[in-house]
Amino acid sequence: MPSPKLSTSLDQGGAPTGAPTKITQGSQTKGGIGESTLRPDGILKVTGEFAYSSDMWHEDMLWGQILRSTVAHAEIVSLDTSEALATPGVYAVMTYDDLPTEVKNYGLEIQDTPVLAHGKVRHHGEPVAIVAADHPETARRAAAKIKVEYRELPVITDEASATAPDAILVHENRDDHHIGHVPHPNVVHRQPIVRGDADRAAGRADVIVKGEYTFGMQDQAFLGPESGLAVPEEDGGVHLYIATQWLHSDLRQIAPVLGLPENKVRMTLAGVGGAFGGREDLSMQIHACLLALRTGKPVKIVYNRFESFFGHVHRHPAKLYYEHGATRDGKLTHVRCRIVLDGGAYASASPAVVGNASSLGIGPYVVDDVDIEAIALYTNNPPCGAMRGFGAVQACFAYEAQMDKVAKELGLDPVEFRRRNAMEQGTLLPTGQPVDSPAPVAELLRRVSAMPLPPERQWESSEGADVRQLPGGLSNTTHGEGVVRGIGYAVGIKNVGFSEGFDDYSTARVRMEVIAGEAVATVHTAMAEVGQGGVTVHAQIARTELGVAQVTIHPADTQVGSAGSTSASRQTYVTGGAVKNACELVREKVLETGRRRFGTYHPAWATAELLLEGGKVVTDGGEVLADLVDVLGEEAVEVEAEWRHRPTEPFDLRTGQGNGHVQYSFAAHRAVVEVDTELGLVKVIELACAQDVGKALNPLSVVGQIQGGTTQGLGVAVMEEIIVDPKTAKVRNPSFTDYLIPTILDTPTIPVDVLELADDHAPYGLRGIGEAPTLSSTPAVLAAIRNATGLELNRTPVRPEHLTGTA
Amino acid sequence: MRVNFTVNGRPQEADDVWEGESLLYVLRERLGLPGSKNACEQGECGSCTVRLDGVPVCSCLVAAGQVEGREVVTVEGLADYARDRAEKGCARGACGGEAPSGTSLDEARNWQARGSDSQTGEGTELSPVQQAFIDAGAVQCGFCTPGLLVAADEMLERNPNPTDADIREALSGNLCRCTGYEKIMDAVRLAAARQGEAV
Lengths: 807, 199
Prior knowledge:
Largest sheet of chain B: 5 strands, mixed
CATH class of the largest domain in chain A: Alpha Beta
Keywords (chain B): 2Fe-2S, Iron, Iron-sulfur, Metal-binding, Oxidoreductase
CATH architecture of the largest domain in chain B: Orthogonal Bundle
InterPro entries (chain A): Ald_Oxase/Xan_DH_a/b, Ald_Oxase/Xan_DH_a/b_sf, Ald_Oxase/xanthine_DH-like, AldOxase/xan_DH_MoCoBD1, AldOxase/xan_DH_MoCoBD2, AldOxase/xan_DH_Mopterin-bd_sf
Protein name (chain A): Oxidoreductase
GO molecular function (chain B): 2 iron, 2 sulfur cluster binding; metal ion binding; oxidoreductase activity
CATH superfamily of the largest domain in chain A: Aldehyde oxidase/xanthine dehydrogenase, molybdopterin binding domain
GO molecular function (chain A): iron ion binding; oxidoreductase activity
Shape of chain B: globular
Oligomer: heterodimer
Structural class of chain A: alpha+beta
CATH topology of the largest domain in chain B: DNA polymerase, domain 1
Radius of gyration of chain B: 16 Å
Largest interface: A-B, 64 and 65 residues
Largest sheet of chain A: 7 strands, mixed
Number of helices of chain B: 7
């Protein structure tokens, strides 16, 4: 934008009464988009004052506790709460029989999840009863006194047991809208995608490479546990302070179970300690509200880490079967794949995860002949649903392993082979949808491979080996003996926003008024700030659009329309778009007011393109017309408006064809690892990333997102996996002692190269960025370990026994 | 039982404490100091890190009764604690020379927190490491931040010029799920550099 110049026109002669005053040199508004402004909640977060959901406190509050099933699949023969209820300090014990209305289930898409178990439990850790008491330990002990007698049923744990002709049905009497097109009632959803003729194309292939891959169950492992405070209100309603990803989605599921109209369930976002998909589904929301309404007292529920592992869905573990063909000159002929996702006991987001896994199943490559199938199973394993990357992660792990295998067969460099097949703008996805914005897949690979490599044997120093730089670290397991280095590459494609015809809108309310002699904007949305920095970006957008310095971010609640979910890399795009749109509407109103008040004083009010900058109304030529303080006067201008991105359409249920996606996000990684081949220990030395972000609204936050996503991908490459006993379907490692996430010692340096190629369909040209780095990180690390060891490694995470041959 | 101890320089008395309660529970639920976080309650994540007589500990693993008569510093008192240390000329860690605590018990006892009535956080005085976490983008969801700040501040007190390997080793008991640790490394390096400049 041009820098506004000093306006002189209004200073000449005696200013008429009512003319704008305080005219000074205009300036572009500071702290707008493109700058690395600091988080508005940063100070509160570093001083410990920021109120997370588990910090909520209320005079006279009770503590809620959930009793969960100790077995995975069983009929409940009897349930006796009398002893628990008789415990001093206990105010209420509730079971299925105490639910107040006919609505006893909830769910994101399919309402198949019981609020409390009814005669049957379908997975380990399913809620059976809830207790409220005056001390958390009293509540825990009372819950332990509830007597539940189970009659165990056989467990469904994989595709074979789920789809056997005589398999027990995890859900009897399904009536959801997927039942008509699935091959078995234990399949939640099936999406085939067929384009071209894979059989015929296979005939052209000089090499055909097949692979079978396994992706382990990953946990979001957000640090802030599921928690919240439900406060009964005088009108018979309830006010819930909650950590969630989507207030209005929660509200729609909570209110019917409570038998309350939605306006009597007030929801306010409490501080959210991370989410990563794990807060899309309800956890303790309904339980806290039920206990609060039953006891008439505020009820707080905070899961501990053990319970948190049972309290939210996980990333779908998957089996993936791939066949790639290529010609001698390094061009892919066809891809066939079958992706089997384990959705566990309840549907959660499984149908949409299937849509992603299938439609993005071959990766960011040009392949005209494809035959893809993805399904999600109902089993008695823990329910799986949303996690960062959402179906695209599992596929990327497999197709990138395949790309390396094909390159090896052809004797081509893996980066060069990818480059020859890289998607670009105009490429058709397997769904037939054209990619109509930049798709710099080859460029990202070029950038990431052009970065300088970290030095070899960096553990060597004059004082001997620094074991902290070696696999095994301070365990002092090697001084370099048996350590080999490997390098691996991967690239991925992630859709941005909710796909397949979903009405994916957001709402923003923006207000502008003069406070203490300064024009100030207030932005009110229901967007869940979960750490991603949406609040930072909203303030930046308001500054850019409204030219004010001060922006107040109103707490997120249900007093404003839905913002949609903080998921699918969508909030900066969609709620950012809504804030931009509302600001533009406010700006129009402000300019109308200005024209009304001051239009006669300067012809530019009528003729020029007008902007708000530096607290002033300026022409696009930079001439200052008025101070916003004078334009607004006593008036407050407020607009609430919904905003939508381009509509999408469902995938055809037989062919998978359809313009299902809104936007794409691309990232590439290069991993450098060192492996102690004797002990099977891996140290990731560096994990470089290049990503196209369209437009970096806040570069500091963008890099932070990329590094955080990269690290979650690293975690599932070498350590993170929820272990479910295949015989009992019970979770074996629900703790941070046994479920490992990367520490600062496990995490390498993560150099990031940010590319900004605008997507003209999106606000400011931006791309959603949060998920793409989680995709390619994992296969890059696996590729590097394969490169170091020569092993095939068809599963993730890789454990020491896979590297030492002792598995 | 009743527990008497000092938190952020102020004598505190907690009544009706059940024997099984942790220091973390007493700080959060009885003393109104929720800054120390409850992310795993088994000593794996470091979110509840406080200093007990100067030593960083996971407050979830300390029984409340164990702190009788002792000194606790939480994230809420970090800014005052750091200022007090700086005013005594210990900003380069000189006062951490002899003991692992870095601050002698007498010094800690003589130190008093100042009140703060900030609602928005604006105008709040911050310790160098707190400011560096904000400036470097080391805060996302922020749940790990209080524990990391206490741990990082203690490390910088002991070791004012840490290498990257030193930083990683010192902070290896603090899990962060959002940042990938790179910005946390930047923040600690920044705090160390500013600390060096200030002297």
